[in-house]
Amino acid sequence: MAAHPRVTLRYFDARGRGQFLRYYLCVRNVAFTDERVPLSADFGAWVAIRDDGAKTGPFHKLPMLHWGESTVAETLVIGAFLHRASGDEARLSAEDNLRHAMLTSSLYVDVMLPLGTLLWADVAYAGVDLPALTTRTLERLHEHFERLDATLADWQWLAGAKTRPVMLADCLLWEELAVAGHVFGTRLKLEQYGTLSKFYRECPDRTVFEKLLADHPCQISGRPGEALAVANLHKILAASA
Question: What does pTM read for this prediction?
Fold first, then answer.
């Protein structure tokens, strides 16, 4: 990556919407301050900074990227900014840039957000039918993975990934496959999707992702008691098998 200014990425001490950005900055050797807002049952650390627009942006949300004098909010906008600032946009053809943008959007909307909603469901939505939501979320994820697998095979995504620097879409794809596997356990059956499973195993620089996770373990979301919530989802899925 070309020379860059001082960089800070601010997000919760969780994977959520920030982990794939951390992967990318690490893989591309960008020196950055990985500022993590601690999680607690009362979200005290977050409440203390939430109203500070210099830290949480115009909409008082995280993640936030400080790139020199530029302050960038909103996950997809941060991704698009890094794609340009890193020179990746110039490396790709117009068609490939569109493909990267479409894949990023689809992973964010169709994978990341539903998984986050499921993890928070019984806390955020009183009276939710959690078994029904769990089953339907897994069904919809399988439907999406089937389409995604076919599309990435058609785009020859893995072959392309091995001939260029790792890009944000690669980081997001690997992270969401890893998160889905954690949330759904053996019921995900990623191996039935040839292209996706091969990408997950062979993604260039996956060792960097795994090292970051090992060096700084953290939960997926900010939900209190997430480990117990995931264990409960596994029980629900086992009972429905």
Answer: 0.97
